[in-house]
# Entry
Amino acid sequence: MNSPTKSKGVLIYAKNNPDFNYVKQASVAAAMAKYYLGVPVALITDKNELTDDVSQFDYVVDWKSSVEHTINKRPFYFDGKAKLINWHNLDRLTAYELSPFEETILIDSDYLIQNNVLNEVWGSNTPLMMNTNTRLPSMLQEHVYELVVADGFPRVHWFTVLYFNKSIQSENWFKTAKFVKDNYDFYKLTFHIPYSYFRNDMVAAVASHICGGMEDGFMKPLPVQQINSYPPDEILEVNKGCITLATESWPVRLDQHNVHIVNKGQIEKHYDRFMELYT
# Structure
């Protein structure tokens, strides 16, 4: 799996909103990715809106879309209260065209890498990899909504992290995913998707189901676990290769484990500490 390729790297989308500084989060994610994986990192953003330092990125790809096609309103919990916020995540399926790499690991801006295990994907014969299993930091299993779209239908695909290469198979999957996105209302009804808002995870699940001949198993898993930390989890301490979280169950130390910090404001709160350790 480690044969050389023309180019390989990590890709992150980031566009700020009034509630979160996604570029700042992405800078932390980029610094950690470069530290542990030793590969370049590209940022996809609207350069006209940039006010943050982007020195952590080896490439900055300019991308603009009309507002109506990029904003996805979703609830987020602040101090236990839900608030509808703008999520600029509807352009994620442009990654195949916009990535400057032959092989790409696409990650969310709030996905923090703490080991080098993802390096195992480079040179793989598998064109795409994404996890369909997930757990919480306290080792507990996710709610059933995060496991399957609906009983008897596809397993949820965690678009938090996706490996893909430039190949016909990958290109076809992205084309299928775009078709599902463009006809999301139809597929939401057909597959009984339980969310009122748009989710790339569901698009990925349905696209893989279609590409796999209406059966699960098309998408192969990544060599790392999908660990999701949700609000009200908070970061208690940050050390090299180790993040300690205050969870609803008990404090959890994630030592050499990658983690998806959904309570993304915590990354901004500890920005200085992360950058001190990884730059």
About this structure: DSSP finds eight helices and 14 strands in the chain. The helical segments are 22-37, 67-70, 95-98, 168-182, 184-190, 200-211, 265-269, 271-278. The longest strand covers residues 158-165. The two ends are 29 Å apart (CA to CA).
